[in-house]
Automatic annotation (TrEMBL):
CDD domains: CAP_ED. GO terms for cellular component: intracellular cyclic nucleotide activated cation channel complex; photoreceptor outer segment; plasma membrane. It catalyses: K(+)(in) = K(+)(out); Na(+)(in) = Na(+)(out). This is Cyclic nucleotide-gated cation channel beta-3. Residues 63-76, 600-612, 644-658 have a biased composition (Basic and acidic residues). Residues 44-54 have a biased composition (Low complexity). It comes from Struthio camelus australis. Keywords: cGMP, cGMP-binding, Ion channel, Ion transport, Ligand-gated ion channel, Membrane, Nucleotide-binding, Sensory transduction, Transmembrane, Transmembrane helix, Transport, Vision. It comes from the Eukaryota. The chain crosses the membrane at residues 118-140, 200-219, 249-273, 317-338.
């Protein structure tokens, strides 16, 4: 069968062309990466780490074991399927009871500082304690407990006693404690420590069943006074709750107010007891028995403790002594509570007061030195924004009070996610990044503030924590090139640039309120001293970033060649040196090159003509004398004449440079004429070839005042 001929308008598949181009591009990139890997083995490999080789499979178990395993799996899977509740035509899945029990199961040891379940249990004990503290005096003094409602009071009392017993027998013996700096979690040790403490003794006394006296003296709440001795659990709950609350000062204010109300409650109970002892309505000072007895007595207690006055005068000696003790107790208690309230509120507003003090001092300073109002307004804005966003003016002051490990833990939770996004630090040692987190400085920029200006020496790297910044450029420096948001990084090349830093190429301005992290070059160098491997990686990446920064901006996309031409790659760019020689593009540059070539040929022809004319002149002269002047270290020049035949080869003339031609006449020697000497005939210069040189030199005369002596010497050439 003959092969089918291709049609004239044969077209390739564009999708296939695109896939081939992509494969070629990836192969080139991979080749480049492996070349860099061979040059610098520090860089990490682009290939993913190989997975662990699969372990050899165990031989299949026998049939009996398979059946046992299947039964176990079915038994385990059944509880997951059966826990559904049908309600109102709907099916709800509820967790199994085992999960509830596993969650509610008490651990062998309890950490009283971090275990929230222990705090919840202390809250129950505190509620039972407050019930006893508030209602035992009330039921003992006021006639609110009657035979008709006694059973309800007894039920609540029993519930409170159960809480006391559970705390004594189950929870407190499991609480961890410190011994010599070690946390003791042994059951016997914890139980022994609790039994040897004062808290255990008070807890035991608080649960002693004095209620058995009900059978002999009747039901009297006074026999439950020992329940008020469990005050240690109440104060422990307050401490643990304040430790986990975000705004603990609110609870402190509520607790202090509760103290005041409880003291007024006790005073009201005492007033009713005193009125009952004197007789209700017997005098003007006692309670007359009208209205709500508790509210009337509580009102009297408030006016007495706060010393408002306007109360009836006591009549009897008992009334006078009671009133005096009440006044003294009221002054002491009320003043102490007011002082405690002041401390609580002062501690809650300490940060706000510090902020106001700093701002007032700054404003006073600016007014003293007549700072412009524009600058003063910006300073006030900075103070207000910093305080509103952070709750403090300087975060480092708070962290300095903590150990280094705690500072690192907080810095990792707050800033590690941001720093880990920086491409410059990817592949570096994790501990090096941790050390760097402790050195970051947080700075707030106002809207319109210049983060860095064009032309400045860059010595810092910036990480945007919050807000936006704009990179400005263009002819006027006001065109927005790009907007960077939270998590972006700029200026990282300045950290590793050689020569002390590189200059900023654009202005960076805060678009709004921007909170930035700053890492300077000095700090990074101090860290890299301890991490040489990370330093190599950073230096390598810095070189790559500098190369990418030096590349020109990408122009319009070049159309991809189609068909088989795409396999050969794109045509390489014309060398810059050749472009500079051409000085233009297209026909203009080529014409200039031809013009320069013609001018060079014309200049060469003129030079040849001059040489031929010089040769023709030399043939008419008897001899040519060429003088060469050489200057030596001494102050006397030496004139050397070479006597050569005028017939020279043109190749020698082209190779030797042109030498200055000296006059052929030799100056006469300055000597006095002697009568004895005969006049010498004039020297006759004969034509021919000689191997001698004529050397003329000047030397000072040995006789003072006679000047210099001219010497003429004939010397053979070597």
């Amino acid at each position: 069968s003959t092969p089918k001929a291709r049609p004239e308008g044969f077209k390739t598949n564009e999708y296939a062309d695109g896939q081939l181009q992509e494969i070629v591009r990836k192969m080139r990139e991979r080749t480049t990466v492996y070349k860099e890997k061979l040059k610098d083995p520090v860089l990490s490999s682009p290939e993913s780490s190989p997975t662990a080789s699969p372990s050899k499979k165990k031989p299949p178990p026998p049939a009996k074991e398979e059946k046992k395993e299947e039964k176990k799996e079915e038994a385990e899977a059944k509880p997951e399927e059966d826990h559904y509740c049908d309600m109102l035509c709907c099916k709800f899945k509820k967790p199994p009871v085992k999960k509830y029990m596993a969650y509610l199961q008490l651990p062998d040891s309890i950490d009283s500082y971090t275990d929230r379940r222990y705090v919840a249990w202390l809250m129950l004990v505190t509620i039972a304690y407050n019930w006893n503290c508030w209602f035992i005096p009330l039921r003992f003094v006021f006639p609110y407990q009657t035979p008709s409602n006694t059973k309800y009071w007894l039920v609540i009392d029993i519930i409170c006693d159960i809480c006391y017993l559970c705390d004594l027998l189950i929870f407190q013996p499991r609480v961890q404690f410190l011994k010599g700096g070690d946390i003791i979690v042994n059951k016997m040790e914890m139980k022994k420590f609790y039994h040897s403490s004062m808290k255990f003794r008070l807890d035991v006394i608080s649960v002693l069943p004095f209620e058995v006296l009900y059978f002999f003296f009747g039901i009297n709440p006074a026999f439950r006074v020992n329940r008020m001795l469990k005050h240690n659990s109440f104060f422990e709950f307050n401490d643990r709750l304040e430790a986990i609350l975000d705004k603990a000062y609110i609870y402190r204010v509520i607790r202090t107010t509760g103290y005041l109300l409880f003291i007024l409650h006790l005073n009201a109970c005492l007033y009713y007891w005193a009125s009952d002892y004197e007789g209700l309505g017997s005098t003007r000072w006692v309670y007359d028995g009208k209205g709500n007895m508790y509210l009337r007595c509580y009102y009297w207690a408030v006016r007495t403790l706060i010393t408002i006055g306007g109360l009836p005068e006591p009549q009897t000696l008992f009334e006078i002594v009671f009133q005096l003790l009440n006044f003294f107790l009221g002054v002491f208690v009320f003043s102490s509570l007011i002082g405690q309230m002041r401390d609580v509120i002062g501690a809650a507003t300490a940060g706000q007061n510090y902020y106001r003090s700093c701002m007032d001092n700054t404003v006073s300073y600016m007014n003293t030195y007549s700072i412009p109002k524009v600058v003063q307004n910006r300073v006030r804005t900075w103070y207000e924004y910093t305080w509103d966003s952070q709750g403090m003016l300087d975060e480092s002051e708070l962290l300095e009070q903590m150990p280094t490990k705690m500072q690192l833990a907080i810095a990792i939770d707050v800033n590690f996610a941001i720093v880990n996004k920086v491409d410059l630090f990817k592949g570096c040692d994790t501990q090096m990044i941790y050390d760097m987190l402790l050195r970051l400085k947080s700075i707030v920029y106002l809207p319109g503030d210049f983060v860095c200006k064009k032309g400045e020496i860059g010595r810092e790297m910036y990480i945007i924590k919050q807000g936006e910044v704009q990179v400005l450029g263009g002819p006027d420096g006001k065109k927005v090139l790009v907007t960077l948001r939270a998590g972006a990084v700029f200026g990282e090349i300045s950290l590793l640039a050689a020569g002390g830093g590189n200059r900023r190429t654009a202005n960076v301005v805060a678009h709004g309120f921007a909170n930035l992290f700053i890492l300077d070059k000095k700090t990074l160098n101090e860290i890299l001293v301890h991490y040489p491997d990370s330093e190599k990686i950073l230096m390598k990446k810095a070189k790559v970033l500098l190369k990418e920064k030096g590349k020109p901006a990408p122009g319009p996309p070049v159309p991809q060649p189609r068909g088989l031409a795409s396999l050969f790659g794109q045509k390489q760019e014309t060398p810059k040196l050749f472009k500079a020689m051409i000085g233009g593009k297209g026909k203009t540059g080529l014409a200039m090159l031809l013009k320069l070539k013609r001018e060079q040929e014309v200049q060469t022809e003129k030079t040849k003509e001059k040489k031929e004319a010089r040769k023709r002149k030399q043939t008419n002269k008897p001899i040519e004398n060429k003088a060469r002047i050489d200057f030596y270290k001494d102050r006397h020049p030496i004139y050397s004449f070479d006597l050569n035949k005028n017939e020279k080869k043109p190749e020698q003339d082209e190779k030797k440079p042109l030498e200055p031609v000296a006059s052929s006449t030799v100056p006469a020697q300055k000597e006095k004429p002697n009568a004895d000497t005969k006049p010498t005939p004039p020297a006759v210069m004969h034509r021919g070839i000689t191997n001698k040189s004529l050397i003329i030199s000047m030397s000072p005369s040995p006789i003072a005042g006679e000047g210099e002596i001219l010497k003429v010497e004939v010397e053979e050439k070597k």
